[in-house]
Each structure stands twice: as structure tokens, then as C-alpha cells.
Amino acid sequence: MEGEYILVTSGLVREFKGFVAVDHVDLRVRRGSIHALIGPNGAGKTTVFNLLTKFLPPTRGQIIYNGNDITRHSPAQVAKLGMIRSFQISSVFPHMTALENVRMGLQARHGGSLRFWRSGKTLHSLHGQALELLRAVGLEEFADVAAVELPYGRKRALEIATTLALDPELLLLDEPTQGMGAEDVGAITELLKRVAVGRTVLMVEHNLGVVGRLADRITVLQRGRVLAEGNYAEVSTNPDVITAYMGGAAHA
Question: Does 222 map to a domain?
Fold first, then answer.
């Protein structure tokens, strides 16, 4: 089907002084799906993310997004096309309020992120949109709270809200539940279900319970290569995956 896949990589390779971190990775992300990238430490997951979002250039291979070759694009060009990455470590401005953080994302989307001389009236026009995004991630009551004062789980929700402010078509999430307790993991999982509606999500995630609840498709990496791909039932019972990644606990 034409346009079925929003993101396709072909023979993607990244070498570091002779070490092959990503080894001929072919990835196809179906439009409107949640696609998870998993694997043991050192499997190459974050390197793949860095290649997709252009923070690293590939040694070889091709990246196609919405039918366009973006292999040599810059990070800014990729973001402008609608591929937006949320980082593993929270990237919000700690001493700005939740509302101000989201409004900064809206300013960036409208081409005004550096126009600090804009009038308060102009910035206020983004107030309603910012509140809507905070409401979508359950943070409306924390609008006037500085990011640094938010509990960890809510800070990650704020990061997602600021990412959504950029109106991504393809949202890349790097370990969205890392470092969270069970309660926060559950809340963020439900949040991701909601924000994924009408979007495509590609996520790196270590928590297999989260992957099982969210992902339509899973790609497993080992030593930079694709080890297996399929839905959760297929991947979690694959003997190679169990040996390489799950340590025998197929249904963890």
C-alpha cells in the first residue's frame, strides 16, 4: 500500500573507528502504529535513534521518511518535517513553569522560539493552546509550578507535552519510563496510549511490560543487528530473543 510506512531504513550502518555499532539495519515503521525498538545494553538502540534524528550521520545506508530521502538532512530539517524526538534525560527548562515550558515549544513550532522581545500579548495568544496540552497530559493543575519542583513522573509528562507542542507526525521516545516507580510507569503508559492516537510512535523502551501493553510491532536488536521482529507474542516466544535479551523470562 502506497504510504503504508512512514519511516523506512535500508542497510543502515554506523561505524566508530572500526567498531560497527549499527550493522545493516532495515526498519519499517507503519504509519499510525506504535513501534518499539528493544534489545540488551549495547545493542545499538540509541545509536539508531541518533541516526534517524540526524545527531549522527550514517556510515552507509538510507533513511526514507514520508517517501523522502532524509539520509543527509540536518536535525533541524528532520524536526521541521515532523519527526520529533523526546530525549531519555528530561530536557525541560527547570526554572520555568510547566506552562512556560509548553509555550516555548509552541513558539518554536511557530518559528518564534528566539523572539524573546515579542510582546506579552502575543505570547498570551499561545496560553490557551499550552493549557490544552497540559490538560492532555494531566498537568493542568501544575501550570504555574516550576519544572524543577515537579515529581519525576510528572516532569516526564511535561516533557511529552512540550514535544507534542511541536506537533510531531512521528514521535520518537527514548526510554520514556526509565527510572520510574510502578505507579508512574502505569500513568505514563496510559498517557502514551492517549497521545499516540492520530500519530506514529517509535520508542526505545527497556520495560517489557510497557512494550507489551503499547507496541503494535517490535524490532529486537542485538550487537547492532536486527535479531527478530514481530508482535509481542511472536517476539517474546522467539528462542533467540529469550536467550539474547530476556534471560529465559519470555513473559516478563
Answer: yes
DSSP state of 40: S
Q: Where residue 219 sits, what CATH number does that domain have?
A: 3.40.50.300
Q: Would residue 100 count as lying in a domain?
A: no
CB 211 within 8 A of CB 246: no
Task: Tell whether the torsion through CA atoms of 69, 73, 77 and 78 is positive or negative.
Answer: positive
Quote the cell numbers at residue 33. 502504529
Which DSSP category does 20 fall into?
E
Q: Does some domain include residue 14?
A: yes
If one counts the domains in the chain, the total is: 1
Note whether 110 and 63 are within 8 A (CB): no
**Is the overall model pTM greater than 0.85, yes or no?**
yes
Write phi, then psi, for 89 (nearest 5 degrees).
-100, 130
Residues 187, 181 contacting (CB under 8 angstroms): no
The C-alpha cell at 225 is 543487528
The length of the chain in residues reads 252
- Residue type for position 137: V
Q: Give the tens place of pLDDT for each residue, 175-204.
A: 888 888 888 899 999 999 998 998 999 999
Domain containing residue 220: 1-74+201-252
